[in-house]
Amino acid sequence: MNKYLSKVFYVLTGSKRSLIFLMLVFVLTSVLEAVGIGLIGPFLRLASEPEFIHKIPILEWIYIQFSLTSSRQVIPILGLGIVALFCIKSLGYFFARYYIFQFTFDQKRLQSLRLFNAYLVVPYTFHLSRNTAGLIKNIILETNQFTLNCLQPILESAANLVVIVVLLLLLAKTDLLLLVMIMAILLPTFIAFYRLGGKFKAWGKIVSESQKEIIRTINHGLGGLKETRVIGCESYFGEQMEEQTLRHEKAATLFNTSQLLPRILIETSLIAFVVLFISISQLFLKQSSEDLTSVMGVFAIASMRLIPSASQLIQGVGRMRNGSYALDMLYFDLKELDREKVEKNIDITGNFKGGNFLKSQPGERQVIPFLRQIELSHITYRYSGTSEPAIKEMSLSIKKGESIALIGKSGSGKTTLVDVILGLLPPESGDILVDGVSIYNNLRYWQDLIGYIPQSIFLTDDTIERNIAFGVPDDKIDYGRMKQAIKAAQLEELVEELPDGIKTSVGERGVRLSGGQRQRIGIARALYHEREILVLDEATAALDTETERLVSEAISSLAGTKTLIIIAHRLSTVEHCDRIYLLDKGTVVKSGSYQEVVG
Fold first, then answer.
1. Is 548 helix (H, G, I), strand (E, B) or coil?
2. 527 contacts 551 by C-beta, under 8 angstroms
3. From the CB of residue 334, how many other CB atoms can be counted at a distance below 10 Å?
């Protein structure tokens, strides 16, 4: 349990002192409840024997202070006191439960934000070995599991444990035999459920893993809907979905059904106990009917709270074991994220090697002064788990306003080099200098110089306007820059043809646009954000010849005004470049003009 709680406290975000306040509220309400229940016995005794008040000092004191003339007059006063006590207790219990829900769901919100922000700023290498479905599952589902099946049960179990302990102490004072018999009923149920803990954890693991596979199947089936429909493999994804939903259904059914057992077992056992206790009392203990009424009155009221508290405590332990897999997922993921951030000198606010790594806010961009040239000096990069470096001691320079092309066969290191230039992969050795200043002094400022245009442009299911001004709130969009970017990317004709202009929705992943139109929106996006350096990674590879020509014209028109770094397989797309670099096995084997390298 200590190990379990240490993981919970590691995952928790924000102040933990509020938990102490919560526990104090639990103790206070439980004590008030115990006192109220403890008064039920004397109250029932007084109802049948009013003269008994003179044997209880506090009731005798009330009798004298209020100048009462009859013992029966104390009964309504005591009754009102008990009612008031239960009202105060109930109010405290209500607010305690409200605080539990508020605290736990606030933790879900904070955990989702913490994971999402961490995934955004953690080094790019982390994402090379992770599945998007798994990350989505952690942000949405595992945080929910942690909230409902770890944190909430811990708080509820703590509250129920306080209630049970106080009530058992009250029953011990009322009748020791009563306590022993109740413990004999509760303990076997606790032990049985504790031994089932392994099953609960296994069911929780199945639920978590099946949810991950469900998300992955949905991503694959719907994400590639065109290919799915043309190939005719709808049944394949349907069968995968059926298999995983069936696994989820079975595990969830078994766990939730098992949670009904504590209440059923405890209620049945306590009914049997009542009959047994009364029988023993009458046959062997020879208790008076008044004493038996008083004891059973306390027991009856105590049972009203003891049964739900005991069953909820047992259920809570089961839920905690069921949620332990989700807790492990969050714990180990956060541990790995924290380790990555420490190794790369990144914290959750985004500091990288002393520089601000977070996205600059609109209007607050600061960039490295770029007046002369970019120099890559002896860059070496090696992927984790590989012996041979992908980039070996590579050096090259790019003058401001120059267009360069990186060519070479697959596996030559072009994409790795671009990822290093983009600041996504920190080199094992070497440096990148802008006018003699290392970009690693402030990587965010360097990235504010760069626009990236890949082969497949990422477009959100939104308007052309919001896709160009990607990441900028509506009220901060600069329409002057927007117009200039659209013109430079040769999108004016398209926008004029559309009935809603730049307010036209492009559909999910730009499905309503052609490949060339999507690429030009990518170019317009880079231009809108006023990037000095444009990196085009196979930007025209997936286009037909005519569309490629149009996009190439848009790119060529930027030559001289922007510094261009182009990766291309089609040599026709790099004819206009000032310098060509031919790469092979992570090194530059040839460089020069197009005629010198290709011709």
1. helix
2. no
3. 19
What tokens appear for 103 in the block? 């605290």
Q: d(Cα 252, Cα 258) in Å, to the nearest integer? A: 10
Question: Is the CB of residue 357 less than 8 Å from the CB of residue 346?
Answer: yes
| Most confident region among 16-20, 93-97, 104-108, 478-482 by mean pLDDT | 478-482
From first CA to last CA, the distance across the chain in angstroms is 72
Give residue-wise pLDDT tens across range 439-466: 888 888 888 888 888 877 888 888 999 9
Q: Which residue has the higher pLDDT, 139 or 38?
A: 139
CA 562 to chain centre: 40
Phi, psi of 458 (to 5 degrees): -85, 120
The pLDDT assigned to 363 comes to: 42
Strands 429-434 vs 403-407: parallel, antiparallel or unpaired? unpaired
Percent pLDDT > 90 in the chain is 4
Q: Are 37 and 170 in contact (CB under 8 A)?
A: yes
Q: Domain ranges in the chain?
A: 2-343, 373-597
Enter the tokens of residue 337: 């994220």
Is 509 buried (19+), middle (13-18) or exposed (0-12) by CB count in 10 A?
middle
Six token digits for residue 323:
């949620």
Cα 282 from chain centroid?
Answer: 60
Per-residue tokens: 200: 């609960």
Q: 530 near 481, Cβ under 8 Å? A: yes
Please write the tens of the pLDDT for every residue from 424-440: 888 989 999 999 889 88
562 Cβ partners below 8 Å, 6+ apart? 401, 531, 532, 533, 534
Q: Rounded distance, CA 530 to CA 276, Å?
A: 85
CATH of domain 373-597: 3.40.50.300
CA distance 157 to 163: 10
Q: What token pair was written down for 576?
A: 């206009």
What average pLDDT does range 158-174 have in this prediction? 76
Assigned token pair, 556: 């060529």
Give the whole-number percent of the chain exceeding pLDDT 70: 81
The residue written with tokens 């901060």 in the block is 476
How far is the CA of 359 from the CAs of 139, 203, 366, 462, 470, in angstroms? Answer: 21, 41, 11, 21, 12
Model confidence at 216, in pLDDT bands (50, 70, 90)?
Answer: confident
The pLDDT assigned to 431 comes to: 92
Sign of the alpha-carbon torsion through 177, 183, 185, 188: negative
Amino acid at 235: S
What's the predicted TM-score (pTM) here? 0.67
Contact 551, 542 (CB under 8 A): no
Query: Region 321-344: what's the mean pLDDT?
Result: 77
Helix/strand/coil (H/E/C) assignment for every residue in 170-222: HHHHHCHHHHHHHHHHHHHHHHHHHHCHHHHHHHHHHHHHHHHHHHHHHHHHH
Q: Which residues contact 225 (CB under 8 A, 6 or more apart)?
A: none
Q: Strand 587-592 and strand 563-567: pairing?
A: unpaired
**Candidate CATH numbers 3.40.50.300, 1.20.1560.10, 2.60.40.1260, 3.30.1540.10; the one for domain 2-343:** 1.20.1560.10
Placement of tokens 């992955």 in the chain:
216
Q: Is the Cβ–Cβ distance between 117 and 13 less than 8 Å?
A: no
Q: With residue 40 as reference, give the H or E element that holds it.
A: helix 17-48
